Amino acid sequence: MDAIRVDRLKKTYGKEVVALDDVSLRVAEGELFFLLGASGCGKTTLLRSIAGLEKPDSGRIYFGERNITDVPTHKREAAMMFQSYALWPHMTVGENVAFGLEERGIDGDELVDRTLEALKGVQLEGYEDRRIDQLSGGQQQRVALARALVVRPKCLLLDEPLSNLDAQLRVEMRGEIRRIVKEYGLTAVYVTHDQEEALSVADKIAVIHKGKVDQVGTPEEIYREPQTKHVASFMGEVNFLKGKVDWIVRDNDEGYVVRAISDAGEILQGKVTLPGWKPQVGDSVVAAMRPEVVRFDDSGDVINQIQGKVLQRVYQGATIQYLMKSVEGVYLQVAVMNPGKLREPGDAVTIIAKQQDVVILKP
Amino acid sequence: MNNRRATIITVIVTLFFGVFFLYPVIDILKVAFTGDEGFTWDYVFTVFANPNYLQGLWNAFLLGTTSTIVTFLIALPLALAAYRWVFPGKKWLSILILAPLVLPPFVGAVGVKHILGVQGALNALLIDFGMMDAAAPTDWLGKSKFWGVVMMNALHLYPILFMNVLAALNKLDPAMEQAAQNLGASPWKRFRKITMPLCMPGIFAGGAIVFIWSFTELGVPLVFDYTRVAPVQIYDGIKDLSGNPTPYALVAVMLVISLVVFAVSKLLLGKNNLGTSPRPKARYSQKTLTGPQGWLVSGLFMLVFVIAAVPHFGVMFLSVSGDWYGTIFPESMTMAHYSEGLGHPVVVGSIKNSLVYSLGATFLNVILGLAIAWVIVRSTIWGRNVVDALMMLPLAVPGLVLAFGYRALSEGSFSWLVGATGDPMFLLILAYAVRRLPFVVRAAVAGLQQSDPVLEEAAMTMGASPKRTFMRVGLPLIGSSLAAGAILAFAFAMLEVSDSLILAQQTEHYPITKAIYALLSMLGNGHEVAAALGVWAMAFLAVAIIGAFVLLGKKGGGMFKL
Q1: Which residue of chain A comes nearest to B462, CA vs CA?
Q2: Model confidence pTM above 0.90
Q3: Domain holding A133: CATH number?
Q4: Which domain holds residue A107?
């Protein structure tokens, strides 16, 4: 059953700014669900609407069967963790964590036990009497998490919880958050603009763009089979090559595969991912391939074979990133894992990608 | 939902404001400009045609401008020094130089009279040293009462300007100056081209208050017998108000001048927030002065404090002097004035009255101020900026004008506020409250702005109802700001002069300031008992104001911003 269902939510600010444009989503029980998008795309507005901190212009939000669209924030049982953590400076760590329990009428031993247990859960044992300004950023982040978790909320809402941490701590904490959410069996909605964070932590990701949901899927689906150019480029580096459809390779239950020819005569062949879209012969399309799926190969296979020249080589340790320019004049990224042979700028090269690694998109 | 509540609050506060602030002011204008056949300039012409009034207005204007200039000369260097340097004893000296705020200048004037008068301490000192002929002592104040008033005004008001300028400097993004420095500007050029222009709004805001307050100062000229000045002429004119619109016209002229100064400071340089950042990321790195340089700056602060404290010391000596006439220090010391004061019906009653009036006004202010600050900061209703500006207006309208308006209305529309016995309690509470509302609103607004709404949202997502959220998170976070605003409002209500002098008519209703004034005209030891009462008031207010600043810390200066 869906733990959270968002049904046709709309929200505009003033007359001009459309923050949410007819957004519908389903989050399953126990799922760690990510809202991913660039800043200003409406993802935070969506999260705040679920928390009850924004009032949508129209649409409905359900927690299970219950329509909570008009339920005030404090009765929603949706604990939120804020980007700035929003820890109350006039209370100690313990008082911050105990707040939600007190508001639920819990007192005495249970209050103390659950507070200490929650602090233990985030590895902050013995910090209950500290003042907030005596904590480091990472510790504050964990207090905020403990405060949200201690009330055992129906759902946990996280608004860019890691954006104020330094890179290393961020990697550490995102694993931690996933572990805790899974341990408590919580349904969580997590907002971020960091695609790497989303890919590595999420059960499911919704990519939000200009107030709309572009695509919902597992990290693999979103990364390997993006349905729009925007999703493809937002999730990581990608090469786009234009062409015109000249043959429908396959049209059956397993999917729709087309072949397109570029102006330079390159043969681009791949899977169509956008549901319900069937490009016909003669239509303009774009083939998308990620830098790591192409490889240097001049064995003679002509499908998805592109010729060009190396312009630049960037050494990144585990991989080497080449920038090349195709015969047609398109700039392409090629990533090679730990190679034995280095290419030099100016070298003429041929690259190739497998059909199952190439996605055909609307131009 | 929020906005509906905000609208209700706005309507209530605006109504309160309209009835108890705008209406009396408009009523003055109405009488001043209404003749037998409708609108008329006649009464205003009468004022300008009367050489006495003209002279009075001109003197008041001169007092205003001169006091403002002198205040600048004192406050500006102090503020810059406090902004740029760390020097020995800075923390205490910065608080110490605010001390003059705790004494109504007219009480200080009494002390000054005993120091600078013909038979005063200064002359005695000079005669002692053989620098003056004992037979022909100089009358320092007699020759230039004008400068006496200017001095009292400047010494009383410079802390306000000091705090305003310092607040403006602290709000400045340090990167502004550092960028200029980085591009090779000399310290002087940096100050002239960057710092000064960016601080202009703060400087002008403070300057406008100082001008308006000294332009309409009533107490000091009264004590110095400087009668050819408009506020005193208005005070005298109150005795025969019925059927005489000329005092109204005089008040109207003063009001218009004050409003113009206020508007100019506001419109020309008002909303300029360029170069300021709400929370400067990089703190200004103050230079630590050590050795002679440091002591020199400390000495400057100390000097200003000592000069500013002369009236206070005068009052203190006076209050314990058995006889102080023609000597440097009182001949003998006695506590008799204190014990006599405590037994004196006027004194005891006035302390009680002042406490009742001021506490009532403060209570009213806290409720109204908190409500309206919430509307200004947290709601999104249309016109909340107008409300914000409106709330600051009492700073621009002289107390004298408002008191005059209340006095005129106390026999008309406001007669229901005055008991059958002529008890001005409600009138005074309202008058005190209206004029101190800006301080409380500013304090509450500052507090609310500094507390991130996210902190309240967090409480709501944790299951706290809006009311509980306010009690547990909202109020504690702004509590210190609000308390400081309330304490200041209370302190200023306790030493209020013009409302008290004009509205309290009968001895049993006198607040402290009016009691002091009444005691001054009492024969015998009137001055000494008045001084004793003044010392009580000073001690009391010192505690209150220090408390407010301890609570507020650096934010204190923001309270006097227009």
Answers
A1: A100
A2: no
A3: 3.40.50.300
A4: 2-232
